UniProtKB/TrEMBL annotation:
GO terms for molecular function: DNA binding. It comes from Promicromonospora citrea. Keywords: DNA-binding, Phosphoprotein, Transcription, Transcription regulation. Residues 156-221 form the HTH luxR-type domain. Residues 10-128 form the Response regulatory domain. The modification 4-aspartylphosphate is found at D61. Pfam families: GerE, Response_reg. This is DNA-binding response regulator.
Amino acid sequence: MTGRPNSAVRVLVVDDQPLIRHSLRLVVGGAADLAVVGEAGTGREAVERALELRPDVVLMDIRMTDGDGIEATRQIAARAELGGTRVLVLSMFELDEYVHAALRAGASGFLLKDAEPDRLVDAVRRTHAGESLFAPSILTRLVEHYLDRGPTHAGAAGTPPGLTARETEVLLHVGKGLSNTEIARTLTISMGTVKSHVGSLLAKLQARDRAQLVIAAYEHGLVGPAARP
């Protein structure tokens, strides 16, 4: 798109409803640092367009004809040539089975379609920056789902073994849902330092993504779960 900086985040919009695709294009394209580089109306087309365009972020609808968004997400996440592409799933449905399926397929986040435009734009930016993004209500239930399964490793209570004091602090704030920028501001450290600590946490805790770091923070009692019935 003309007038966009070369560093603009490249976005592929995927939805089987033309009106929703148009609305998403308007919202995303309205941000100066984002650029919609293409659209797709089916899961199969989404994979084809992703391979063709190599977007930074795919906004992926879950329920579509001719191949659903979960399968398309799985295929995109599995392609080595799309290693720089992250998938942000959008859905009208706040169903646990969809959230878990999206995570297993390799999605970096899950957002409801009724989110405010500013939140959607922020979600695209954060997904591109490597921050898993989930609607608050979804993240709470996601965490509780994993907690209900019980500890996944020995010594689940207390500080995870092998972490430095600073890494534990960073994990605590990740568990609270803070972004890298917010963590840097809170701890008065640079963004580069935050990213370094997050990378170390992913390696030490054998976590695939930021969402699993949040779960680890809950499992070890660094962050308390929401009140449960």
